[in-house]
Design goal:
Elements: H1 9-20, E1 27-31, H2 38-50, H3 62-68, E2 75-78, E3 81-85, E4 88-92, H4 95-105, E5 115-119, H5 127-138, E6 144-150, H6 158-161, E7 165-168, H7 174-183, H8 188-198, H9 202-210, H10 212-227, H11 233-249, H12 251-272, H13 285-294, H14 297-315, H15 320-329
Parallel strand pairs: 1-6, 1-7, 2-5, 5-6
Antiparallel strand pairs: 3-4
Helix pairs in contact: 2-3, 4-5, 7-8, 8-9, 9-10, 10-12, 11-12, 11-15, 12-13, 12-14, 14-15
The structure holds zinc ion (ZN).
Protein backbone atom coordinates (compact mmCIF):
# COMPACT_ATOMS: atom_id res chain seq x y z
CA UNK A 1 0.00 0.00 0.00
CA UNK A 2 1.18 3.51 -0.61
CA UNK A 3 1.06 6.06 2.13
CA UNK A 4 2.26 8.82 -0.15
CA UNK A 5 5.22 9.66 2.05
CA UNK A 6 8.53 10.52 0.47
CA UNK A 7 11.72 8.91 1.70
CA UNK A 8 10.14 7.57 4.90
CA UNK A 9 9.97 3.89 3.97
CA UNK A 10 11.61 2.79 7.22
CA UNK A 11 9.24 4.65 9.53
CA UNK A 12 6.28 3.55 7.47
CA UNK A 13 7.36 -0.11 7.44
CA UNK A 14 7.83 -0.09 11.22
CA UNK A 15 4.37 1.36 11.67
CA UNK A 16 2.80 -1.14 9.28
CA UNK A 17 4.40 -4.11 11.04
CA UNK A 18 2.84 -3.06 14.34
CA UNK A 19 -0.57 -2.56 12.74
CA UNK A 20 -0.45 -5.86 10.83
CA UNK A 21 0.16 -7.72 14.07
CA UNK A 22 -2.82 -5.91 15.55
CA UNK A 23 -0.50 -4.35 18.09
CA UNK A 24 -0.98 -0.65 17.67
CA UNK A 25 0.68 1.19 20.55
CA UNK A 26 -1.31 3.41 22.93
CA UNK A 27 1.05 6.23 22.14
CA UNK A 28 3.53 7.05 19.41
CA UNK A 29 6.27 9.62 19.24
CA UNK A 30 7.15 10.79 15.73
CA UNK A 31 10.45 12.63 15.78
CA UNK A 32 12.25 14.40 12.96
CA UNK A 33 13.22 17.73 11.41
CA UNK A 34 10.68 20.30 10.17
CA UNK A 35 8.62 19.54 7.10
CA UNK A 36 9.60 15.90 6.51
CA UNK A 37 6.08 14.47 6.87
CA UNK A 38 5.56 13.80 10.59
CA UNK A 39 2.06 15.24 10.58
CA UNK A 40 1.19 13.48 7.33
CA UNK A 41 2.31 10.19 8.85
CA UNK A 42 0.16 10.86 11.94
CA UNK A 43 -2.90 11.36 9.74
CA UNK A 44 -2.08 8.21 7.75
CA UNK A 45 -1.93 6.27 11.01
CA UNK A 46 -5.33 7.68 11.99
CA UNK A 47 -6.66 6.59 8.60
CA UNK A 48 -5.13 3.11 8.90
CA UNK A 49 -6.83 2.69 12.30
CA UNK A 50 -10.25 3.78 11.04
CA UNK A 51 -10.42 3.02 7.30
CA UNK A 52 -13.50 1.14 6.03
CA UNK A 53 -11.59 -0.73 3.33
CA UNK A 54 -9.65 -3.99 3.62
CA UNK A 55 -6.48 -2.34 2.33
CA UNK A 56 -5.86 0.20 5.03
CA UNK A 57 -5.54 3.09 4.63
CA UNK A 58 -7.28 3.22 1.25
CA UNK A 59 -7.25 7.02 1.15
CA UNK A 60 -10.53 6.96 -0.78
CA UNK A 61 -13.33 5.96 1.58
CA UNK A 62 -15.38 8.60 3.32
CA UNK A 63 -13.52 8.01 6.61
CA UNK A 64 -10.09 8.40 5.01
CA UNK A 65 -11.20 11.53 3.19
CA UNK A 66 -12.69 13.13 6.26
CA UNK A 67 -9.55 12.41 8.28
CA UNK A 68 -7.36 13.95 5.56
CA UNK A 69 -9.68 16.97 5.50
CA UNK A 70 -9.47 17.41 9.27
CA UNK A 71 -13.23 16.92 9.80
CA UNK A 72 -13.44 13.45 11.36
CA UNK A 73 -15.02 13.57 14.81
CA UNK A 74 -12.60 11.05 16.31
CA UNK A 75 -9.34 12.55 15.09
CA UNK A 76 -8.21 15.63 16.93
CA UNK A 77 -5.11 17.77 16.90
CA UNK A 78 -3.94 19.61 19.98
CA UNK A 79 -1.62 22.47 19.16
CA UNK A 80 -0.19 25.72 20.51
CA UNK A 81 -2.66 28.24 21.96
CA UNK A 82 -2.25 31.44 23.85
CA UNK A 83 -3.55 31.05 27.40
CA UNK A 84 -3.05 32.31 30.90
CA UNK A 85 -0.82 30.34 33.25
CA UNK A 86 1.11 31.12 36.45
CA UNK A 87 3.44 33.44 34.57
CA UNK A 88 0.83 35.34 32.56
CA UNK A 89 -0.35 34.96 28.95
CA UNK A 90 1.79 32.45 27.16
CA UNK A 91 1.87 30.49 23.97
CA UNK A 92 2.12 26.76 24.40
CA UNK A 93 0.09 23.65 24.99
CA UNK A 94 -1.56 24.18 28.35
CA UNK A 95 -2.91 21.92 31.05
CA UNK A 96 -6.46 23.05 30.24
CA UNK A 97 -6.07 21.54 26.77
CA UNK A 98 -4.85 18.24 28.23
CA UNK A 99 -7.83 18.19 30.63
CA UNK A 100 -10.17 18.65 27.69
CA UNK A 101 -8.50 15.71 25.93
CA UNK A 102 -8.91 13.60 29.09
CA UNK A 103 -12.60 14.43 29.08
CA UNK A 104 -13.10 13.56 25.42
CA UNK A 105 -11.01 10.38 25.43
CA UNK A 106 -13.10 9.01 28.28
CA UNK A 107 -15.96 8.77 25.77
CA UNK A 108 -16.22 6.02 23.14
CA UNK A 109 -15.31 7.03 19.59
CA UNK A 110 -18.28 8.82 18.02
CA UNK A 111 -18.12 7.36 14.52
CA UNK A 112 -14.96 5.33 13.99
CA UNK A 113 -13.10 2.47 15.62
CA UNK A 114 -10.27 4.30 17.30
CA UNK A 115 -9.96 7.82 18.55
CA UNK A 116 -6.67 9.44 17.56
CA UNK A 117 -5.27 12.47 19.36
CA UNK A 118 -2.33 14.19 17.67
CA UNK A 119 -0.26 16.51 19.86
CA UNK A 120 1.77 18.74 17.57
CA UNK A 121 4.29 20.08 18.46
CA UNK A 122 4.35 17.91 21.58
CA UNK A 123 7.42 19.66 23.01
CA UNK A 124 5.32 22.81 23.38
CA UNK A 125 3.42 21.20 26.25
CA UNK A 126 4.42 23.19 29.30
CA UNK A 127 5.50 21.48 32.52
CA UNK A 128 2.01 21.28 33.99
CA UNK A 129 0.59 19.96 30.72
CA UNK A 130 3.30 17.29 30.50
CA UNK A 131 2.65 16.15 34.05
CA UNK A 132 -1.07 15.93 33.41
CA UNK A 133 -0.50 14.09 30.14
CA UNK A 134 1.84 11.62 31.85
CA UNK A 135 -1.05 10.61 34.15
CA UNK A 136 -3.19 9.92 31.07
CA UNK A 137 -0.44 7.80 29.55
CA UNK A 138 -0.03 5.82 32.75
CA UNK A 139 -3.62 4.67 32.47
CA UNK A 140 -4.38 4.96 28.80
CA UNK A 141 -8.08 4.97 27.92
CA UNK A 142 -9.22 2.14 25.61
CA UNK A 143 -9.81 2.78 21.89
CA UNK A 144 -7.50 5.79 21.95
CA UNK A 145 -4.14 6.26 20.25
CA UNK A 146 -2.01 9.31 21.02
CA UNK A 147 0.51 10.57 18.48
CA UNK A 148 3.12 13.01 19.75
CA UNK A 149 4.86 14.92 16.98
CA UNK A 150 8.15 16.57 17.90
CA UNK A 151 11.22 18.19 16.42
CA UNK A 152 13.04 18.42 19.78
CA UNK A 153 12.15 15.39 21.87
CA UNK A 154 14.64 16.37 24.59
CA UNK A 155 12.03 18.86 25.83
CA UNK A 156 9.66 16.01 26.69
CA UNK A 157 9.74 14.27 30.07
CA UNK A 158 11.73 11.03 29.84
CA UNK A 159 8.76 9.30 31.49
CA UNK A 160 6.53 10.43 28.62
CA UNK A 161 9.04 9.36 25.98
CA UNK A 162 9.49 5.92 27.54
CA UNK A 163 5.75 5.27 27.27
CA UNK A 164 5.61 6.01 23.55
CA UNK A 165 6.62 3.87 20.60
CA UNK A 166 9.23 6.06 18.94
CA UNK A 167 9.57 6.45 15.19
CA UNK A 168 12.23 8.61 13.65
CA UNK A 169 11.66 10.40 10.36
CA UNK A 170 14.82 11.42 8.55
CA UNK A 171 15.42 13.95 5.85
CA UNK A 172 14.81 12.18 2.56
CA UNK A 173 17.60 12.20 -0.01
CA UNK A 174 17.56 14.95 -2.63
CA UNK A 175 17.03 12.23 -5.25
CA UNK A 176 13.84 11.12 -3.44
CA UNK A 177 12.54 14.70 -3.36
CA UNK A 178 13.41 15.24 -7.02
CA UNK A 179 11.64 11.99 -8.00
CA UNK A 180 8.55 13.03 -6.06
CA UNK A 181 8.45 16.39 -7.81
CA UNK A 182 8.87 14.77 -11.24
CA UNK A 183 6.05 12.38 -10.40
CA UNK A 184 3.82 15.36 -9.69
CA UNK A 185 4.55 16.77 -13.12
CA UNK A 186 7.18 19.34 -12.19
CA UNK A 187 9.51 19.89 -15.14
CA UNK A 188 13.00 18.33 -14.92
CA UNK A 189 15.32 21.24 -14.34
CA UNK A 190 12.90 22.91 -11.93
CA UNK A 191 12.49 19.66 -9.99
CA UNK A 192 16.26 19.38 -9.62
CA UNK A 193 16.57 22.98 -8.41
CA UNK A 194 13.66 22.72 -5.96
CA UNK A 195 15.01 19.45 -4.55
CA UNK A 196 18.37 21.14 -3.95
CA UNK A 197 16.83 24.25 -2.42
CA UNK A 198 14.59 22.15 -0.16
CA UNK A 199 17.55 20.38 1.46
CA UNK A 200 15.19 17.46 1.93
CA UNK A 201 12.23 19.35 3.38
CA UNK A 202 9.63 17.73 1.17
CA UNK A 203 6.72 19.84 2.42
CA UNK A 204 8.53 23.00 1.42
CA UNK A 205 9.45 21.66 -2.05
CA UNK A 206 5.87 20.62 -2.80
CA UNK A 207 4.52 23.95 -1.62
CA UNK A 208 6.93 25.91 -3.80
CA UNK A 209 6.18 23.67 -6.79
CA UNK A 210 2.51 24.67 -6.45
CA UNK A 211 3.06 28.33 -5.75
CA UNK A 212 5.23 30.27 -8.18
CA UNK A 213 5.12 33.40 -6.00
CA UNK A 214 7.35 31.65 -3.46
CA UNK A 215 10.09 31.33 -6.07
CA UNK A 216 9.69 34.99 -7.01
CA UNK A 217 10.16 35.82 -3.37
CA UNK A 218 13.35 33.77 -3.43
CA UNK A 219 14.60 35.95 -6.30
CA UNK A 220 14.04 39.04 -4.19
CA UNK A 221 15.67 37.48 -1.14
CA UNK A 222 18.76 36.49 -3.09
CA UNK A 223 19.03 39.94 -4.64
CA UNK A 224 18.90 41.39 -1.14
CA UNK A 225 21.47 38.90 0.17
CA UNK A 226 23.82 39.86 -2.65
CA UNK A 227 23.29 43.60 -2.20
CA UNK A 228 24.34 43.49 1.47
CA UNK A 229 28.04 43.42 0.72
CA UNK A 230 28.08 46.78 -1.02
CA UNK A 231 25.94 48.62 1.56
CA UNK A 232 27.41 51.27 3.82
CA UNK A 233 26.65 51.56 7.53
CA UNK A 234 23.74 54.00 7.13
CA UNK A 235 22.09 51.79 4.52
CA UNK A 236 22.49 48.72 6.69
CA UNK A 237 20.90 50.46 9.67
CA UNK A 238 17.99 51.63 7.52
CA UNK A 239 17.51 48.11 6.21
CA UNK A 240 17.57 46.73 9.78
CA UNK A 241 14.81 49.15 10.73
CA UNK A 242 12.71 48.17 7.73
CA UNK A 243 13.18 44.46 8.40
CA UNK A 244 12.29 44.91 12.08
CA UNK A 245 9.03 46.52 10.98
CA UNK A 246 8.48 43.59 8.61
CA UNK A 247 9.13 41.16 11.46
CA UNK A 248 6.36 42.71 13.55
CA UNK A 249 3.87 42.33 10.70
CA UNK A 250 4.97 38.92 9.46
CA UNK A 251 7.52 37.10 11.67
CA UNK A 252 7.53 33.89 9.60
CA UNK A 253 8.11 35.90 6.42
CA UNK A 254 11.19 37.54 7.85
CA UNK A 255 12.54 34.27 9.23
CA UNK A 256 12.11 32.77 5.74
CA UNK A 257 13.99 35.73 4.30
CA UNK A 258 16.88 35.18 6.72
CA UNK A 259 16.76 31.48 5.84
CA UNK A 260 17.19 32.34 2.15
CA UNK A 261 20.13 34.62 2.96
CA UNK A 262 21.69 31.88 5.01
CA UNK A 263 21.29 29.43 2.13
CA UNK A 264 22.99 31.92 -0.16
CA UNK A 265 25.93 32.56 2.13
CA UNK A 266 26.34 28.87 2.89
CA UNK A 267 26.65 28.37 -0.87
CA UNK A 268 29.21 31.19 -1.09
CA UNK A 269 31.17 29.39 1.61
CA UNK A 270 30.94 26.06 -0.25
CA UNK A 271 32.18 27.64 -3.49
CA UNK A 272 34.95 29.41 -1.58
CA UNK A 273 35.99 26.03 -0.11
CA UNK A 274 35.97 24.35 -3.52
CA UNK A 275 32.85 22.20 -2.83
CA UNK A 276 30.54 23.35 -5.59
CA UNK A 277 28.80 19.95 -5.63
CA UNK A 278 26.95 20.75 -2.42
CA UNK A 279 25.58 24.09 -3.57
CA UNK A 280 21.78 24.52 -3.15
CA UNK A 281 21.28 27.51 -5.45
CA UNK A 282 22.59 25.59 -8.46
CA UNK A 283 21.04 28.02 -10.95
CA UNK A 284 23.27 30.79 -9.57
CA UNK A 285 26.75 29.37 -9.81
CA UNK A 286 28.26 32.31 -11.75
CA UNK A 287 27.04 34.85 -9.16
CA UNK A 288 28.14 32.58 -6.31
CA UNK A 289 31.65 32.32 -7.77
CA UNK A 290 31.81 36.07 -8.16
CA UNK A 291 30.71 36.62 -4.55
CA UNK A 292 33.12 33.95 -3.28
CA UNK A 293 36.02 35.63 -5.00
CA UNK A 294 35.22 38.88 -3.18
CA UNK A 295 34.94 37.77 0.44
CA UNK A 296 37.03 35.83 2.88
CA UNK A 297 36.18 32.30 3.95
CA UNK A 298 36.12 33.38 7.60
CA UNK A 299 33.83 36.31 6.85
CA UNK A 300 31.32 34.13 5.02
CA UNK A 301 31.47 31.41 7.71
CA UNK A 302 30.92 33.95 10.50
CA UNK A 303 27.94 35.44 8.69
CA UNK A 304 26.32 32.02 8.14
CA UNK A 305 26.63 31.44 11.90
CA UNK A 306 25.32 34.93 12.69
CA UNK A 307 22.26 34.35 10.50
CA UNK A 308 21.46 31.14 12.38
CA UNK A 309 21.91 32.92 15.74
CA UNK A 310 19.73 35.85 14.64
CA UNK A 311 16.92 33.48 13.62
CA UNK A 312 17.04 31.80 17.03
CA UNK A 313 17.11 35.11 18.91
CA UNK A 314 14.12 36.42 16.96
CA UNK A 315 12.17 33.27 17.76
CA UNK A 316 13.02 33.76 21.42
CA UNK A 317 11.51 37.25 21.31
CA UNK A 318 14.72 39.25 21.53
CA UNK A 319 14.47 42.91 20.40
CA UNK A 320 14.12 42.56 16.61
CA UNK A 321 15.73 45.86 15.71
CA UNK A 322 18.75 45.25 17.90
CA UNK A 323 19.22 41.71 16.60
CA UNK A 324 18.94 42.84 12.97
CA UNK A 325 21.26 45.82 13.38
CA UNK A 326 23.92 43.60 14.94
CA UNK A 327 23.46 41.06 12.18
CA UNK A 328 23.63 43.52 9.28
CA UNK A 329 26.56 45.50 10.61
CA UNK A 330 28.45 42.20 10.81
CA UNK A 331 27.66 41.18 7.21
CA UNK A 332 30.77 40.74 5.07
CA UNK A 333 31.65 43.83 3.09
CA UNK A 334 32.71 43.36 -0.51
CA UNK A 335 36.32 44.33 -1.01
CA UNK A 336 36.43 47.28 -3.39
ZN1 LIG B 1 -10.16 4.29 3.75
Amino acid sequence: MSWGLIGQERAQAALERGLADGRAAHAYLFVGPERVGKRTLALKLAQALNCEDDERPCGECSTCRRIAGGIHADVQTVTVEEAEDDEGMRKGIHVSQIREIERVTALKPFEGLTRVVIIDPAEEMNAAAQNAFLKTLEEPPPQVVFVLVAVDESRLLPTIRSRCRRLELRLPSLADVEAALLERGVEGERARLLARLSRGRVGWALEVADDASLLERREESLAQARALGSMGVAERLALAERLAGGFRRDPEGLLAELGAWRGWWRDVLLVRSGSEDGVANIDRLPELREEASRCSREGAAAFVRALGDAGRQLRENAQPRLVLETLLLGAPAAEA
